[in-house]
Write a structure and sequence with these properties.
- Two copies of one chain form a homodimer.
- The first copy, chain A, is α/β, with parallel strands linked by helices and 345 residues long.
- Chain A contains 13 helices and eleven strands.
- The first copy, chain A, is 45% helix and 18% strand.
- Chain A has a six-stranded mixed beta sheet, with helices on both faces. A five-stranded parallel beta sheet of chain A has the order 2-1-3-4-5, sandwiched between helices.
- In chain A, α5 runs parallel beside α13.
- Chains A and B meet through α4, α5, α8, α13 and β11 of A and α4, α5, α8, α13 and β11 of B.
- The structure holds a DNA duplex (30 and 30 nucleotides).
Amino acid sequence: MKNPTLSDVAQLAGVSYATADRVLNRRGNVAAKSVDKVERAVEELGYVRNVSAAKLSRNSQQKLAFVLPDRSHKFFARMNAQLERAMPNLKVAQMTCDVIEFAAFEAGALRAALAGLVGQGYGGVAFVGQGADGALDVLAALRGEGVKLVALVSDSPAGSRDSYIGIDNLKAGRAAARLVGMAHRNVAGQAIVLAGSMDLRDHVDRVAGFQDVLKADFPNIQVAHVIETKDRSSIAREKLRAALKETTNVTAIYNAAGGQEGVIDVLRRFVDPEQVFCIGHELIGPIRRALESGIVDIVIDQLPELEVNRAVALLQSLVDELPPPPFPELVPAIYMRDNLPTEDF
Amino acid sequence: MKNPTLSDVAQLAGVSYATADRVLNRRGNVAAKSVDKVERAVEELGYVRNVSAAKLSRNSQQKLAFVLPDRSHKFFARMNAQLERAMPNLKVAQMTCDVIEFAAFEAGALRAALAGLVGQGYGGVAFVGQGADGALDVLAALRGEGVKLVALVSDSPAGSRDSYIGIDNLKAGRAAARLVGMAHRNVAGQAIVLAGSMDLRDHVDRVAGFQDVLKADFPNIQVAHVIETKDRSSIAREKLRAALKETTNVTAIYNAAGGQEGVIDVLRRFVDPEQVFCIGHELIGPIRRALESGIVDIVIDQLPELEVNRAVALLQSLVDELPPPPFPELVPAIYMRDNLPTEDF
DNA sequence: CCTGAATTGATTGACGTCAATCATTTTTGA
DNA sequence: TCAAAAATGATTGACGTCAATCAATTCAGG
């Protein structure tokens, strides 16, 4: 009924409490055969450390940090808001959480933000991996001092973090293409694709997935343009407008990028929603309204609230050295005007 | 830096530790003005109970139970498996979790299963609410002895449980209709709808949502039949076959029910996938393969693994009287052959 | 003002782990 | 075989809360 304690383990192993403790907390100076005896006893009793007692004894407030692009990007504002909602829960777990914002798409900004965390005693850090390639040394420094790292939304190289939480962008792009294809019903047409930057792995993946499926299953839909917007509305507006002018029979627009206001602007003014199937990413205010009014047909959303929840839970288990929660694969929502969430983002 | 303790609260409030304790743990026999003083001090210090210390002191193994339809239903097998994966995490939280299976679709089976839990000292119970109408008295009995209740997948009446975890089936049906409509591109056609039983709220909602959207936005798609299958493959097979025979120009099939093997059978043998847009619910083995082979176009999945995770987390917070985690609205996955999860269910 | 009831104060052992100290025993190597 | 090194044992205070006890004080009603 009652869980075994470390004393029980020691007793069964035939060693003192002190030795059992040395084994479990890796304090060293233990003979191999003692380690063995203790481990066998742990196994036999199914001993698991009483986390409550451990935390209480250690009596340490763990510090977490979330390093996110500034919240002027509405997508990251959603993450920020969710983090805010999670604060009470973090508090009862005896943790604090700082949010560090950095200028998105500015080279070196992530690096600088992360560098500020070195030596500050953080137990875990979640960061949006966009631009992490230029921060590998800082990430290594953090890990070196025992900080647990979780990449969010956009992955950083495998060796540089403990875990990644984000969607599979290749699949997202493929799904987008399938939906476009379905909506065409074998009618031929031209598609325009927008991406923030072909330097960003996320966007590259989405575009690649999109093109793969079109090529394989819907050959009569051609990708006429792949536009780079740098996630800026003004650029998107101009380039999309130009592309529309020089292309006949545009039947689909896939915006794999963020910052969609510019795209919607053009759609609203120059495009017949009946003729053009339009699909984008991330449900933020303006996009939602475009969806509701029929200008946009589908929005793929990576559910940042869910990602934040997972990051928090994962960091908690990492810093306490507990087994990670069994997360199923993260699958983005596909929103239409008919299944929008009740809360507005 | 360090969190305030109850002693700090007592001191600030100008009462003894004992009195502060009496207030926080509702032990009674405290004068109103003392309660007030303590509450003000709590507020001012931002005191939150140290959960680790509380759990340690109480030293109680909490018992949870999940009451699910038997796992011969592959959908519930998925839940079962996820629960299995969550066991280590429950163990470190000093909790145990029993899984009680009952015969699905058998009147009284849920009631009987729940009745077996009364007086057994459970701290929290999650149950699939299908058929809960006949078990309201047992639910009341459980709540009466302090058991926290969470309805899963299918809700039970609002007053009979603490919380509900499941998808919005109306929205799911609406989304299904939208996808069907998109794929028709203004071409007229006939749709066949299948449901397990029109007594089940879930299925009724899905069908209603489906019909709503068709009526409003795609009037040239008619619902020719609404078939009740009792979630049995044999019935689905027969009735669908008959419906197909007597209907010309069938262009869509929406299966809102579980137990889809029968439907797939018929599709495989008698239906041209090119002509008929087919959409169903819940990604289980056979459906997945039908999706991959092009017989089924879309599967809406309510992500039972996620639901189980939430139920576990929610029950934990309920039994420990902690603030509930900030869950965003649960949105079902829309699977196509292109965005299937890596793991097979 | 007195009495019984209500309220408050003071204190304590337990919960299981951590982290430390100090003494003792065993092992190793020259 | 002996000294140094390695390993082990024994013990302890702290962590913050819970749940209990018992004594002391305040309050209400007659």
